[in-house]
Design a protein that fits this description.
about 0% strand, mainly alpha, about 85% helix, disordered C terminus, globular
Length: about 350
């Protein structure tokens, strides 16, 4: 009898409705997952559509001739340039993080950079690369505010340097491109400067915080103050800011050089000034969150601008974009090796970073 009574109680408990809060949380999680999945599908469709649109307007025979001229040594050269740029990017990030955490090791920063890049390429649209960088560094250093501040500052310097290189290209590039892009570039730089001021200066932070619910701000007050402390440490060191900006500009110029090297390696000899003016615009366009890792947007905008300003034909332009894409994939393979060695730990970080990205959205 006692056994039957316990079984009946177990059945009744399992049949009881779940708490409303749990049901609401589960419903929000399901809806968030569906929304993110839909977003990935939309971005994938846009990427495929843009690639198809470019491809159907190409002379495939000409494209085939250019691809046949690509040697294995040429691909290795592009991969070497891309690897050097990724290491430079890791060094730029470490310069910022080391200012608030002197014990940070460059090898650890390089490993995190390559793993996040590899996973961003292997599973595009699934993993938040910046969130993974933050969580990976915070996990190894138990300093989430410092990791968060360094990644945000690194991204800001990257965008600002990209805007400066675009402005330089506008000033020395073709007049038609300057007339088309100068005003949007200046407005973008002004917006980036305003965001940096809003984050870096204490007076403007109150206006920034007023955009969020006060209860939410109070809940994370301690964490926000630690992030602000890191930004204050950056602001108090002008040499750090200048050095970070110089490294960022060098990185952007290196990416221009990567595209130009690809053009040279397929037998083209265009004017470098056009690459300096157009490639940063292409890279900026590829940052728009409308495609999978910029795929499709990068190729379409490069072909459009190069042909519009008579730099190269559509076939060599698409070949350059394809070579840069392939070299980028190959240069992330060291990250695949790091990932294979610590897969369980990285998978856990991916889970946390995605949950954070979903909560933020």
């Amino acid at each position: 009898m006692r056994l039957r009574r316990l079984q009946a109680m177990s059945i009744l408990q399992s049949a009881r409705p779940a708490e409303p809060g749990i049901l609401l949380q589960d419903d929000m999680t399901i809806r968030d997952g569906k929304r993110r999945s839909l977003g990935r599908w939309v971005r994938a469709i846009i990427s495929i559509a843009l690639i198809v649109l470019v491809f159907v307007n190409l002379d495939t025979d000409e494209l085939g001739r250019y691809l046949k001229n690509v040697s294995f040594a040429a691909i290795l050269a592009l991969v070497a340039i891309d690897l050097a740029l990724r290491i430079l990017s890791a060094f730029r990030w470490q310069v910022l993080y080391r200012s608030t955490n002197p014990s940070s090791a460059f090898a650890e920063i390089v490993r995190i950079t390559f793993v996040s890049s590899f996973l961003g390429q292997a599973m595009p649209g699934v993993i938040g690369v910046e969130a993974l960088r933050i969580y990976s560094l915070a996990k190894s250093k138990t300093d989430f505010p410092g990791a968060f501040a360094s990644v945000i500052a690194d991204r800001m310097f990257g965008l600002m340097s990209l805007g400066l290189v675009i402005l330089l290209g506008m000033l020395i590039g073709p007049g038609e491109l300057r007339e088309l892009m100068l005003i949007p570039v200046l407005l973008t730089l002004a917006l980036l400067a305003a965001i940096i001021v809003a984050v870096a200066w204490p007076v403007s932070r109150h206006f920034l915080e007023s955009a969020f619910p006060s209860a939410f701000i109070l809940k994370i007050r301690t964490w926000i103050d630690k992030v602000y402390h890191c930004f204050d440490a950056y602001r108090a060191r002008p040499r750090l800011i200048v050095w970070s900006l110089v490294l960022s500009v060098l990185f952007q110029l290196g990416r221009v050089a990567l595209f130009y090297a690809a053009a040279l390696l397929i037998g083209e000899s265009p004017d470098f000034v056009y690459f300096l003016a157009i490639v940063p615009v292409v890279m900026f366009a590829s940052l728009m969150p409308i495609s999978i890792s910029g795929l499709g947007v990068r190729e379409a905008s490069l072909v459009l601008l190069f042909t519009q300003f008579h730099v190269m034909g559509s076939a060599p332009s698409f070949t350059v974009a394809l070579l840069v894409f392939v070299s980028g994939l190959l240069s992330t393979l060291p990250g695949g090796w790091f990932y294979a060695r610590q897969r369980q730990q990285v998978d856990e970080l991916i889970k946390h970073s995605n949950e954070s990205s979903g909560a933020a959205s």
